[in-house]
Amino acid sequence: MPPVPGECQVWRLPIGPAHWAGLDVLDDEERQRHARFRQVADRDRYQAGHVGVRMLLGHYLGVPAGQVGFSRHCRHCGAGHGKPVVDQPATKLDFSLTHSGEWVAVAVAADPVGLDVQELTGGTDVAALSESVLSPAELRWWTAQPAESARRAFFGYWARKEALLKATGHGLAVPMNRITLTPPDEPARLVDWAAERPLDGPVQLHDLDVGPDYTAAVAVLSSLPVRITRAEFPASLAAGRQLPDPA
Ligand SMILES: CC(C)(COP(=O)(O)OP(=O)(O)OC[C@H]1O[C@@H](n2cnc3c(N)ncnc32)[C@H](O)[C@@H]1OP(=O)(O)O)[C@@H](O)C(=O)NCCC(=O)NCCS
Question: How far apart (Å, rounded) are the C-alpha atoms in residues 51 and 207?
Answer without folding.
Answer: 26
